[in-house]
Amino acid sequence: MAEELAGKVAIVTGGASGIGRATAELFVAEGARVVVADTNAELGDELAASLGDAAAFRRTDVSDADDVQALVDFAVERFGGLHVMFNNAGIGSSFSRFLDEDFADYERVMSVNLWGVIAGSQRAARHMAAFGGGSIINTASIAALSGGAGPITYRASKAAVVQFSRSIAVDLAEHGIRVNVIAPGHIATAITTYDMGAIIRTTQPLQRHGTPEDVANAVLFLAGDRAAQITGIVVPVDGGTVAGGPVNQMRMLMTGDKQMQDKLRQGGSDGR
């Protein structure tokens, strides 16, 4: 490893599993000291122990601003500073159609997905502003970048994360704080419980199945000094989904090609 984060201290929320876990592991491998934050203490403790002295776990509910402040204080006290804040914690929402939606989960989803990012960004930035700057990376989703049916509250929360992040990127630039957004596509995590294969075959140009490690690699770049001139951007890690649908599907739709239709039904001609 090149140790791109040597000497840096990072917090990863939602760090006990999925994208957060892959990022915490990569950050440590690249020389950072990492505080893993999550509500799942069992998984968080296990991960921190496996990463050795360079990692520590702090149980944190990101929807509670006081808990988030205690997390930042813990990182500073344990490792001597805070240079990277990855606000990654998030939860899904109901897939109900809009006319049937009762929004019973609205408050909790917004509290975690949006307020958790706001609180995490502010409390980290207050420290960073006093100590020469830093990097904040917030997790949104490709669901924030285009409309569509599905988890309405989730989509709204992630779209708000994008606009919030762009706004504070401008506001915090004078303090040397960079703010960027990562927008994962169809990546297998605890909240992506749908049939990934069918979705990728029909909506994603790159037929390769993405992994949490793919997202972690993009986060690493935004966290490190190679991205020193980058702030206020959104990086989709989505196999091209936001750019457009697969070529073979478009050909099928435009030509009515029966052979192409059969290939799509069988899983696509480009592999899985």
Task: Summarize the model shown.
The protein has 272 residues and is of the alpha/beta class. It has nine helices and seven strands.
Fold topology:
Blueprint: E1 9-13, H1 18-29, E2 33-38, H2 41-51, E3 55-59, H3 65-79, E4 84-87, H4 106-130, E5 134-139, H5 152-172, E6 177-184, H6 196-203, H7 212-223, E7 234-237, H8 247-255, H9 258-266
Parallel strand pairs: 1-2, 1-4, 2-3, 4-5, 5-6, 6-7
Structure explained in plain terms:
It is a single chain. Helix 3 runs parallel beside helix 4, helix 4 (106-130) runs parallel beside helix 5 (152-172) and helix 8 (247-255) runs antiparallel to helix 9 (258-266). This protein is α/β, with parallel strands linked by helices and 272 residues long. Mean pLDDT is 92; it is low at 268-272. Helix content is 45%, strand content 14%. Strands 3-2-1-4-5-6-7 form a 7-stranded parallel beta sheet, sandwiched between helices. It has 9 helices and 7 strands; from the N terminus they run E-H-E-H-E-H-E-H-E-H-E-H-H-E-H-H. Strand 1, helix 1 and strand 2 (33-38) form a beta-alpha-beta unit. It folds into 2 domains: 9-241, NAD(P)-binding Rossmann-like Domain (Rossmann fold); 244-272, no CATH class. The protein has helices spanning 18-29, 41-51, 65-79, 106-130, 152-172, 196-203, 212-223, 247-255, 258-266, and strands spanning 9-13, 33-38, 55-59, 84-87, 134-139, 177-184, 234-237.
